[in-house]
Amino acid sequence: MVGMEAQYNDEAREGPRHAVIMLGLFFLFLIAFGLSLSLGSVHIPLAGLFGVLTGEEVSSPAWAIIVHTIRLPKAITAVLAGAALSVSGLQMQTLFRNPLADPFVLGISAGASLGVAIVVLTVGAVGSVLIAGMGFLGDLSLAVAAIIGAAAVLGCVLLVSRSVQSVMTLLILGLMFGYATGAFVSILIYFSVPEQIQSYILWTFGSFGSVTWRQMPVLFCAISLGLLLAFLCIKPLNALLLGENYARSMGLNVKRIRLWILISASVLAGATTAFCGPIAFLGLAVPHLCRSLLHTSDHRVLMPAVTCLGATLALLSDLIAHLPGSQFVLPLNAVTSLIGAPIVIWFILYRKNLSQAF
Amino acid sequence: MAIFKTQDLAVGYKHGRRPPRVVARDIDVSLHRGEFVCLLGPNGAGKSTLIRTLVGMQPPLDGHVYLMGRDIADMSAIEVAQVISVVLTDRMSVGIMAVRDLVGLGRYPHTDWIGRFTEEDERVVSWAIRAARAEDLAYRNVAELSDGERQKVMIARALAQQPDLMILDEPTAFLDLPRRAEIMALLQDLAHSTGKAILLSTHDLDLALRCADRIYLLPFEGALQTGAPEDLILNGAFEGAFQSEGVRFDADTGAFKLNAQRGRTSVAVSGEGRRAYWTKRALERAGFRVGDAGSRWRVVIREDGVWCVERGGVVRECDSIADLIAALKSNHR
């Protein structure tokens, strides 16, 4: 009886406990955002930062330029990309009921890579002058190529998903799309010169720093749309925890919801990859961290938590990649995985509730 | 009016352009309020296919299913979900979730876009947990439940959906005998006390015969028969449906018996009560036939718990059934 009462009390505390953790996550996010504006090769103190953001006179005019043209767009991009990848990962893990699923399981990033590879490795050779001459479009050319590539794969996946009964089949088909597009990239690389290959490899390292203010509205709209769709799918995602058969028996139109989830997750992953490169790890790890931290699989709690933590970790990864105080910059993907993996491993071994989640 | 009715229903599988494989056809059944019905039949007769068709997991090959007088094919998924709820055999891992939240998922067709609970929803969930006798599980983590506890929770979830009809696919599979009896008694009680119709498929012949108001009997080949369990036994339907090599349905006891083809040597048993009953069972198991007093072998069970084996005046005393069987076998050879 005593044991039961203890459990009861535990549960009664669950609601407030979630609220406290969410609040903590949000504060962490604010701190990370502030730090990413303040730290870098040039340190801008907090007071100066406030001055710059409110438009007052500050002691060094260079600060305003640094914040406005470099750090603010980079930070906003990191927030959007981190949130997008993490939410997309959560959707994939629930849809496929698979802890290894991430935003890229359906070959979205492979499609984007192919688009970029075609531009960098072929067009780049004959038409770099052409692209430079296209102005705004040239500015967007990598992103446009990546979007076209991602959209092509997304189109294939959606087309197939209409006739596929089992979600497992879809997962395997997605993997196959990924391999096929990867093969094309290999062939392109094989026939390219080292300079082109290097610029392609640089793209695959990922970066939040290449989005300009002109491109920002496109990224912002795409990711807002994806997030909106994802939040509208919270209730169906909870029902899908029971499996598709139960979800159907509770009145869910499984095929339609599956389509919406795929569209949402793919737009999020596709837009992010197009503008920032294939950023690894966040989409896989953040949902696990949130589940473990909040000890729940309820998407009403997870969805906002994942959005917040995803943005925070993206900001922090970028911060670490820029090695504040130095002129060096590490590849973003190396940072997310190198620092992220041990954290997740420790978390999972320490909290021991991953096995319950799947 | 029947809650649920099928007309000329044919179930089976359709693959592309090949002709469909019909598992069972011409199914005309109905279900009424407060009825507890068990679907029985040998493996491969199509019980699962029928259940899957009734809950809408696969389309019927032919015929109609009517729910509250409306053709289920014309109803939306939400409309169906408000009348039927199910307990399936799917082994699912729901993730990190308290039992109460899992039961709460049953409110799906009744809540708003994000699944917010009203007081009414909370009340129904509490009622469902109580009705499934899962109160002490309410705040446990679903991943930590035993099979039997999990089944109760899934029944609670189905109840929380507030259906008029519950359909359960083999809810007693994987459970030990006491748990099976508990689940069956629970479902019978729910049907009678709440007025919901409950249909379940099971392999548990004995329990079904004892609990069900009506039986749907689906033989391997042939038409589905319905009736009170006892009627189906008396008219020989059971014997027909479950006929197979080596096993037969014994209409006298309502249980299966291994065909005693091996019983060449007959043994007469004299004794009373439990000891005599189990002695006879042991003899049949060991391949002897329990015969009359004229048999070559005679076993007398004495008051002091000793078995005396006698043949042609030679008596041997045994102090356990294992001993007795050994004695009979060695002498027999």
CATH hierarchy: architecture of the largest domain in chain B:
3-Layer(aba) Sandwich
How would you classify the helix and strand content of chain A by structural class? mainly alpha
Assembly level:
heterodimer
Average pLDDT across residues of chain B? 88
General description of the model:
The complex is a heterodimer of chains A (358) and B (333). With 358 residues, chain A is an all-alpha fold. Chain A is 79% helix and 0% strand. Chain A contains 15 helices and no strands. Chain A has helices spanning 2-38, 46-54, 61-95, 108-132, 136-163, 167-190, 194-205, 216-232, 234-240, 244-249, 254-276, 282-294, 299-321, 332-351, 354-357. The model of chain A is unreliable at 1-12 and 129-137 (pLDDT under 50). By secondary structure, chain B is of the alpha/beta class. The radius of gyration of chain B is 25 Å and the shape is elongated. Chain B folds into two domains: 4-244, Rossmann fold (3-Layer(aba) Sandwich); 266-332, Rossmann fold (3-Layer(aba) Sandwich), CATH 3.40.50. The model of chain B has no long low-confidence stretch (mean pLDDT 88). The longest helix of chain B is centred in the middle third of the chain and has 18 residues, at 177-194. Classes of the chains: A mainly alpha (358), B alpha/beta (333).
What are the SSEs and their pairings?
The complex is a heterodimer of chains A (358) and B (333).
Chain A: H1 2-38, H2 46-54, H3 61-95, H4 108-132, H5 136-163, H6 167-190, H7 194-205, H8 216-232, H9 234-240, H10 244-249, H11 254-276, H12 282-294, H13 299-321, H14 332-351, H15 354-357
Helix pairs in contact in A: 1-3, 1-13, 2-3, 3-8, 3-11, 3-12, 3-13, 4-5, 4-6, 4-7, 4-11, 5-6, 5-11, 8-11, 12-13, 12-14, 13-14
Chain B: E1 4-13, E2 21-27, E3 30-31, E4 36-40, H1 47-54, E5 62-67, E6 70-71, H2 77-81, E7 84-87, H3 99-105, H4 119-131, H5 147-160, E8 165-169, H6 177-194, E9 197-201, H7 205-211, E10 214-217, E11 225-227, H8 229-234, H9 237-241, E12 247-250, E13 255-258, E14 266-270, H10 273-285, E15 289-291, E16 297-301, E17 307-311, E18 314-318, H11 321-332
Parallel strand pairs in B: 4-9, 4-10, 7-8, 8-9, 14-15, 14-16
Antiparallel strand pairs in B: 1-2, 1-3, 1-5, 5-6, 10-11, 12-13, 16-17, 17-18
Helix pairs in contact in B: 3-5, 4-5
